[in-house]
Amino acid sequence: MKTLKNLGYLLGLPVILILIWWAATLETENFFVPTPASLVETFAEVWFGERIFTDVLPSIGRLAVGVLVAIVIGVVGGVLIGSVRWLRALLEPTLEFFRAIPPPVLVPVLMLLMGITDTMKVVVIISGCIWPVLLNTIEGVRAVDPVLSDSAHTYGVDGWARVRYLVLPSASPQIMAGVRQSMSLGLILMVISEMFASSSGLGFAIVQFQRSFSIPEMWSGIVVLGLLGVGMSFIFQWAERNILRWYHGQKEVENAA
């Protein structure tokens, strides 16, 4: 019964929106808005074939590498900056300056410096994804309970042991919040980097469809991006439940009390 209820919550709104879409296009022929049936047919024709290997998988690869590298750099840099007061005071103005620069405007600069390569597209993704992780990690490290910190110091828990058993667990809820934001930004930047200069990828395919007035194909590419975002959300939720199992358990105990 619970499984059916969860399935209803998961599929209820999408089904309602598709029914509204179907009803709105039932007796009309709009060149720019395909019917659900024609979109499903086009989706199968376009994406269940060679384009999976030429466009979908390369995009997923760039996105995965960019987001993972941004997470690693953001967490390591955030722990270091958040733990050292003078370093935080030194770097804060510079970090705020670079954080304020929209990553898409870096695409032309990176194209000049690095050329039109996969590395350039990955760097574009990193340049936007790193900030939510870095800044959330810094704030999470700064918010470590001072009583726990003093206790760890008293018992001789210093160095890597302090980071592993005190700092990272305490900051992990905020780190995961930053990771969630970075994944959404990564998907956006992946598409933007492929729209500017590319010969493959989802962003490239969607622009090519639009320029050739292949409207159903263009919409099918947008659907692929939406499905990719949903898949990333499920992966994140699974990872968060496992990484923050102790945190959610603590919240349940507090709410029960």
Structural notes for this entry:
The chain has 257 residues and is mainly alpha-helical. The protein contains eleven helices and no strands. The protein has one domain (35-256): MetI-like fold. Helix 3 (51-83) packs parallel to helix 6 (118-142), helix 3 (51-83) runs antiparallel to helix 8 and helix 6 runs antiparallel to helix 8 (159-196). It is flat. The two termini are 28 Å apart.
Element-level helix/strand string: HHHHHHHHHHH
For the record, the CATH architecture stands as Orthogonal Bundle
CATH topology: MetI-like fold
* N-to-C span: 28 Å
Key phrases:
single chain, 257 residues, mainly alpha, MetI-like fold, 0% strand, flat
What is the topology?
Layout: H1 2-24, H2 36-47, H3 51-83, H4 85-99, H5 106-114, H6 118-142, H7 146-154, H8 159-196, H9 202-211, H10 215-243, H11 245-256
Helix pairs in contact: 2-10, 3-4, 3-6, 3-8, 5-6, 6-8, 8-9, 8-10, 9-10
Short description:
The chain is an all-alpha fold. The chain contains eleven helices and no strands. The longest helix is centred in the C-terminal third of the chain and has 38 residues, at 159-196.
